[in-house]
């Protein structure tokens, strides 16, 4: 069985992620095949647009194949660096693709799934959509352009989502700028058929779209913005705990359950990404950080607890925010020299 089904149909280049039992998690081979197909379709005048979806009804994509990353990281191997390089280059290609790129973000869309959808030009969420960048929970950071997307969300909503791994509804995703249109899942077959016949794909999506429910997180900005505007993680936690909001206190608990090192690195990455020029520079930044986190303790331990043993009890090192060495955070942002991803500029 092909892990990704690539074909052309009535002028559409179609990508279907096809690992439904693994929630369509991305493997290195899937990334390579998608990138090659997009390069070919970009040059093919008979292909007028791209449509990406996921097999099964559970979701578009749950992210990268982190079990494979675990095995390489545990053995001290560099395989994940190659995967991230190719994945980030694919994300960048999607963001610059000259033809309409329609992403059906139905069901679960996490991590790498955000990378192959939210950088597209026409992004559709449904009543079944859950969008999330949960990487701080496994000792990593929101990558695949996550720092770019979340740092540009309204107010401090992106900081909240990144540091707590908050799950976003379809309405939240649209408000955050991660999606454009809300189409009920039951209408997706009808939408796909219409897209196969249409010249103006954006108009077709708008015709099928409905007004989404209100974003709950947008209504929480009264406490999110002042709490997460702080310069340090310690001050953010303090403000959340004293906000007088039960949701703020719950957010503090969620944040403190995550890798202390990853939370501190992620906050600095978001603040840095916010003033960078574009997605390419943010992907370069994420690649530097990813290469360092690969060699640390928390990534292997986080994946072990979440995916391998599934005990949900990671033993972080250090295990308190206050004990994270500033030098260890700064080390994640160091220039890689000849190993740079090289998308800046």
Automatic annotation (TrEMBL):
Pfam families reported in the protein's UniProt record: ECH_2 (PF16113)
Reactions catalysed according to its record: 3-hydroxy-2-methylpropanoyl-CoA + H2O = 3-hydroxy-2-methylpropanoate + CoA + H(+)
Keywords: Hydrolase
Keyword Glycoprotein: no
Domain of life: Bacteria
Domain Enoyl-CoA hydratase/isomerase as annotated: residue spans: 13-333
TM segment ranges: none
Documented EC number(s): 3.1.2.4
PANTHER family: 3-HYDROXYISOBUTYRYL-COA HYDROLASE, MITOCHONDRIAL (PTHR43176:SF3), 3-HYDROXYISOBUTYRYL-COA HYDROLASE-RELATED (PTHR43176)
Name by which UniProt lists this protein: 3-hydroxyisobutyryl-CoA hydrolase
């Amino acid at each position: 069985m092909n892990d990704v089904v690539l074909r052309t149909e009535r002028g559409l280049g179609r990508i279907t992620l096809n690992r439904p039992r693994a929630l369509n998690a991305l493997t290195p081979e899937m990334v390579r095949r998608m990138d090659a197909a997009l390069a070919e379709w970009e040059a093919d005048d008979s292909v007028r647009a791209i449509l990406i979806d996921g097999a099964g009804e559970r979701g578009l994509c749950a992210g990268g194949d982190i079990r494979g990353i675990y095995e390489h990281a545990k053995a001290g191997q560099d395989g994940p660096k190659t995967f991230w390089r190719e994945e980030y280059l694919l994300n960048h290609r999607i963001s610059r693709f000259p033809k309409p790129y329609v992403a059906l973000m139905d069901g679960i869309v996490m991590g790498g799934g955000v990378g192959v959808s939210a950088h597209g030009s026409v992004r559709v969420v449904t009543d079944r959509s859950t969008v999330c960048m949960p990487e701080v929970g496994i000792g990593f950071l929101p990558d695949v352009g996550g720092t770019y997307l979340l740092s540009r969300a309204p107010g401090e909503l992106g900081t909240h989502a990144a540091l707590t791994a908050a799950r976003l509804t379809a309405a939240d995703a649209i408000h955050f700028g991660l999606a454009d249109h809300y189409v009920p899942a039951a209408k997706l077959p009808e939408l796909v058929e219409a897209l196969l016949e249409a010249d103006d794909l954006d108009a077709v999506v708008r015709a099928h779209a409905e007004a989404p429910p209100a974003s709950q997180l947008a209504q929480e900005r009264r406490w999110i913005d002042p709490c997460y505007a702080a310069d340090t993680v310690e001050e953010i936690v303090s403000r959340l705990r004293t906000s007088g909001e039960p949701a703020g206190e719950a957010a503090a608990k969620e944040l403190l359950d995550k890798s202390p090192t990853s939370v501190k690195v992620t906050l600095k990455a978001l603040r840095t990404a916010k003033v960078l020029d574009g997605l390419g520079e943010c992907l370069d930044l994420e690649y530097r950080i990813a290469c360092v986190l690969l060699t640390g303790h928390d990534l292997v331990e986080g994946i072990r607890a979440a995916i391998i043993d599934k005990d949900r009890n990671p033993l972080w090192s250090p295990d308190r925010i206050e004990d994270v060495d500033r030098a260890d955070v700064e080390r994640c942002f160091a220039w890689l020299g000849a190993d740079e991803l090289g998308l800046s500029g």
